[in-house]
Structure to design on (580 residues):
């Protein structure tokens, strides 16, 4: 599903990640690692947000560097601490994401409804609490027909009821559409009901399966 | 189109909001020049239309004036590039890198083109007016060239934005100053200087160029003016040009050094610590001043400049991080001080500025902006 070839990420002269070759089969993966090990850096690289050396391939064919648009249409991302322009409404963002990611008309409604976001989605983002912002960011990551969804710390700042819904979204997407997930989380996923395929550990600036 | 809506709100309208002070300044300057300086302040009501028409006719018939206007528009466009590039680096716009990049390049390009045309509305307005006059007086060539020029600028801008948003972010390298000073303990008041040399070099150079142009122009334009007045006027212009850096210094404190209010430092110390920042930032101008004017007058003018900078800095505590209000207030202060220099001695003005700025700082520092 995902292949990293000679992947290397440096900040100035400091190598943060050095992954010679790594292949991830379809499934739901829990990315684990201590603070500062490079989890967010890896996810941002996989999402095409930051520059890196080497190559990233989706389904062994779609190269992030050679087919940037196709890749980005199939790989969605939600940040750990999302920040959006305060003057936009949640709805404006959702509409834009839905169009950019080629979502079915009205696809967003089910997500907004189940997360109980309809009451405030037309309000400016500046009025949102951190939990509301996080739910908006998670909703955006599910729009379109992604093959891979990258979620950075998806369980923080979200209330328990919403977490249960998120677990259902992940499980349903995986089972019905075959969407793959990489979840970077410090919180335990064991009791979430999510059928985690394997754990991926970041150790010594590289990746390994647990 | 949802994307265009977001780009217009986040970039075009925000550009006007952030630069409204500057646009207002240019507008008032041009009007003042055309109607008061050019006509020596003597014109009748019925002549105002004539002067306006004369200015526009010169534009649509004179290639030299057209080139001057084109140069101004190029500078305006470059300013918009800087603005968009800066906005794209903001955390709140990071979502664009993983959303709008999924659109086809043609759609992205079209949206950026429309955004740039929205930013270029003052240029388009000028072109429309010139075209109407061109139609009446059968002078077509320059209005046509103007339209092509506006489109060319917009096309180049859209290509640049397309490149910026589709290019993965690269890890920046620290500036030489940061690397050299890594082992030295830094005083809190000098942190902004490091920030300029780390992230604001281009802005600093632009301000220095503008500052040099203003100093040279004033010095040459008024060779016979009394030194007592021209030196403070030069310093007032220089400090006003630096007002954006002063705003950024406060913004840096608010966003990155918010904990400063938690430190056991007196307000007097915090207030006067800015003198070092101002001195280091305006060192080239200070040296220039001492090379052109007598020692005592230069020293007095520098103290005057410092007191104005204190006043500008305290202004932020009144306006908050609202750049529009801030620039509007700076513009009012500039005009007021300009006339006060002609009436009062700089020593006296310095004292007034210092008292007002310290009072604002003392009473507003721990309070939210008005």
């Amino acid at each position: 599903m995902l292949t990293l070839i000679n992947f290397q990420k440096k900040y100035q002269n400091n190598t943060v990640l050095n992954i010679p070759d790594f292949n991830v089969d379809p499934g739901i993966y829990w990315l684990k690692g201590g603070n500062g090990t490079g989890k967010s850096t890896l996810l941002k690289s996989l999402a095409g947000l930051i520059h890196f050396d080497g190559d990233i391939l989706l389904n062994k064919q779609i190269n992030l560097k050679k087919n940037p648009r196709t890749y980005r249409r199939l790989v969605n991302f939600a940040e750990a601490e999302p920040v959006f322009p305060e003057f936009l409404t949640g709805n404006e963002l959702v509409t834009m994401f839905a169009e950019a990611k080629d979502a079915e008309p009205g696809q967003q409604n089910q997500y907004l409804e189940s997360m109980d976001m309809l009451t405030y989605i037309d309000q400016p983002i500046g009025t949102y609490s951190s939990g509301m912002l996080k739910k908006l960011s998670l909703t955006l990551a599910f729009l379109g027909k992604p093959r891979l969804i990258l979620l950075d710390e998806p369980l923080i700042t979200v209330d328990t009821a919403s977490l249960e819904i998120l677990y259902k979204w992940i499980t349903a997407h995986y089972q019905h559409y075959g969407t793959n997930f990489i979840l970077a989380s410090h919180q335990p996923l064991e009791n979430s009901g999510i059928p985690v395929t394997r754990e991926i550990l970041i150790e010594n600036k590289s990746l390994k399966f647990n | 189109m949802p994307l265009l809506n977001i780009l217009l709100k986040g970039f075009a309208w925000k550009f006007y909001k952030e630069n409204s002070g500057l646009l207002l300044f240019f507008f008032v300057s041009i009007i003042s020049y055309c109607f008061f300086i050019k006509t020596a302040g003597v014109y009748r009501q019925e002549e105002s239309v004539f002067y306006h028409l004369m200015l526009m006719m010169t534009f649509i018939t004179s290639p030299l004036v057209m080139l001057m206007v084109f140069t101004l528009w190029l500078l305006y466009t470059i300013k918009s590039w800087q603005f968009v590039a800066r906005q794209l680096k903001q955390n709140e716009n990071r979502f664009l890198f993983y959303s709008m990049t999924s659109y086809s390049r043609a759609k992205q390009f079209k949206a950026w083109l429309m955004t740039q045309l929205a930013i270029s509305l003052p240029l388009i307005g000028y072109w429309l007016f010139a075209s109407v006059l061109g139609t009446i007086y059968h002078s077509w060539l320059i209005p046509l060239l103007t339209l092509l020029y506006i489109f060319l600028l917009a096309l180049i801008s859209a290509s640049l934005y397309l490149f910026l948003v589709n290019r993965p972010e690269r890890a920046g390298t620290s500036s030489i100053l940061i690397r050299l000073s890594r082992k030295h303990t830094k005083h809190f008041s000098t942190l902004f200087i490091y920030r300029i040399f780390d992230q604001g070099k281009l802005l600093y150079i632009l301000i220095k160029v503008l500052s040099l142009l203003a100093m040279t122009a004033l010095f040459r334009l008024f060779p016979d003016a009394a030194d007592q007045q021209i030196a403070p006027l030069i310093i007032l212009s220089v400090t006003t040009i630096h007002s954006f850096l002063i705003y950024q210094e406060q913004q840096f404190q608010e966003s990155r050094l918010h904990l400063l209010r938690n430190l056991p430092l007196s307000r007097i110390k915090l207030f006067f610590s800015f003198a070092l920042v101002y001195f280091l930032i305006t060192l080239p101008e200070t040296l220039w001043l001492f090379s052109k004017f007598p020692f005592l007058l230069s020293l007095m003018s520098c103290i005057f400049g410092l007191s104005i900078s204190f006043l500008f800095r305290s202004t932020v505590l009144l306006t908050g991080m609202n750049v529009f209000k801030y620039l509007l207030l700076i513009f009012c202060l500039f005009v007021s001080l300009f006339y006060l220099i002609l009436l009062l001695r700089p020593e006296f003005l310095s004292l007034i500025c210092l008292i007002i700025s310290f009072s604002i700082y003392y009473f507003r520092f721990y309070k939210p902006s008005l």
About this structure: Helices of chain A lie at 39-46, 68-74, 90-100, 107-114, 130-141, 160-177.
